[in-house]
Structure formats: C-alpha cells, structure tokens
Design goal:
Largest sheet: 5 strands, parallel
CATH architecture of the largest domain: 2-Layer Sandwich
Number of domains: 2
Order of helices and strands: EHEEEEHEHEHEEHEEHEH
Number of helices: 7
CATH topology of the largest domain: Methyltransferase, Cobalt-precorrin-4 Transmethylase, Domain 2
CATH class of the largest domain: Alpha Beta
Strand order of the largest sheet: 3-2-6-1-7
C-alpha cells in the first residue's frame, strides 16, 4: 500500500534535516520537491528515484497548487513511497494542510514529517533569539504576503501592538508595506528590525536596522528572506556566531 510523506526539509543547512526525513528520502520512489528545499538533499535518494520539481517563485508558479495536489495523488497511485519535500515545515505556510486534506479525501495514506522552521532557525543562525528573558516572552509568525484573492485580510494589524517578536516569512517584496503598517499602528521609527537572506546557508546575508532605514538598507538582499522585528534584534551583535562555513 502506498504512503505519502509530507516532509519538511528544514531551512537550508543540510545538517538541519531530521533523521526521519533522511530515512524516507532514501526510501522514496519519487520525490516531489519545491524551490526552498536544498537540492543537495536529492543526492541522498536511492538509484532510480524519480524527481519532480514543483517550485514556486515570486509571481511565477511552475505548477499551480491544485496541480501539485493532483501530482502527489497520481504518484501515490503508481508508487509505494512518495515524498513531498517542502522547505522548512509543511504546516508553517507550506500548504501541507491542503495537500494532506486532498489525499485524505481520496483515501491515500499519508504521514507528516515536521521540519525545522525558518521562523526560529534563521534568526538563530543570525544571532537573534526569538525570545529572551527580560526582552521578549512571546513571538508571532506571520506570512509576508496574504493570498490576494481573499475577500478580507486575515491579518489584523491593530492586534499587533505588544512588544512580542514578530517574524515575517516570505515578506521581502512586501517589506515597505510591512514597515508602513508597523509605523501606522504606533511602532516608533527607531524600532529594531533585521532582514536575513538565505538563512542557515553559506550565502546567508544579514542587514540590521530600524523601521526608518531598513527598506533602503535591505534593498539589494536576495530572496528568500526572513524579517525579524523586535527588541531581540539588539542582541544580534553580541550573539552572532555563524560564519557561513
């Protein structure tokens, strides 16, 4: 009987791939992978394994999500072990829930293999703790862009007024809008913010600033990028440790 493993690939560093994820990757008959999964992971697949790329890039989708769902399903009909490999964690803005529901409705057995989310790992590699005693006792993970076809926004900016750490994923192209909304709800222009590009990899780049200057300072950073907002950013210089090696 076939099984689909909705598998988190982690944030980029190969050594952050979980042991369980590595096991099913090595057993897979077919691996359906996205843009954010480190392609080096595919070298762990067995001889003869099939690879299907379904990556999404800004304003350009190789394959719409509905077609990705159907591709996973059709491969489950043909193969005993299917790995859907997703950057980060399948259930953290990874649309893993949609894929799981699609399989459930069609009677396909599936398993979720969580991955280390970039929401916590990328700031950590940049020397930024998402919580720190006396600085921040909570953090909020927010999508950097909401689906444009939603009838009404799910993110209510006026609710984001505490000093908890804010982590925006996939928000580089909307950085100016994010900053504008934070200023609008009363965050001071001196409020700390960091943008981390290609976090946990050898290509990691970091820009630290405030709400007044970050848009200009981070202008040339490539995607994918993680945005961290809050007083924990002020700890970065003291806690920096990752050299990209």
């Amino acid at each position: 009987m076939s099984k689909v493993y909705l598998t988190g690939a982690g944030p980029g560093d190969l050594e952050l791939l979980t042991i369980k994820a590595l096991r099913v990757i090595r057993e897979a008959d077919v691996i359906i992978y996205d843009k954010l999964a480190n392609p080096e992971i595919l070298k762990e697949a067995k001889d003869g394994a099939e690879f299907i790329y379904v990556g999404k890039e800004d304003k350009h989708h190789i394959m719409p999500q509905d077609d990705i769902n159907e591709t996973i399903y059709q491969n489950a009909l043909k193969h005993s072990t299917v790995v859907r490999l997703k950057g980060g964690d399948p259930f953290v803005f990874g649309r893993g829930g949609e894929e799981a529901l699609y399989l459930k409705e069609r009677g396909v057995s599936f398993e979720i293999i969580p991955g280390i989310s970039s929401a916590i790992s990328v700031p950590a590699y940049a020397g930024i703790p998402v919580t720190h005693r006396g600085v921040a006792v909570s953090f909020r993970v927010i999508t950097g862009h909401e689906t444009p076809d939603k009838k009404s926004p799910q993110l209510i900016w006026d609710e984001i007024k505490s000093d908890e750490t804010l982590i925006f994923l996939m928000g580089k192209h909307n950085l100016e809008k994010i900053v504008g909304n934070l200023l609008k709800i009363g965050k001071p222009k001196e409020y700390p913010i960091a943008v981390i590009s290609k976090g946990t990899t050898k290509e990691q780049q970091l820009v630290v600033g405030n709400l007044e200057n970050i848009v200009q300072k981070a202008k040339e950073l490539p995607t994918p990028a993680t945005i961290v907002v809050g007083h924990v950013v002020t700890l970065q210089e003291q806690l920096a440790w990752f050299t990209g090696e």
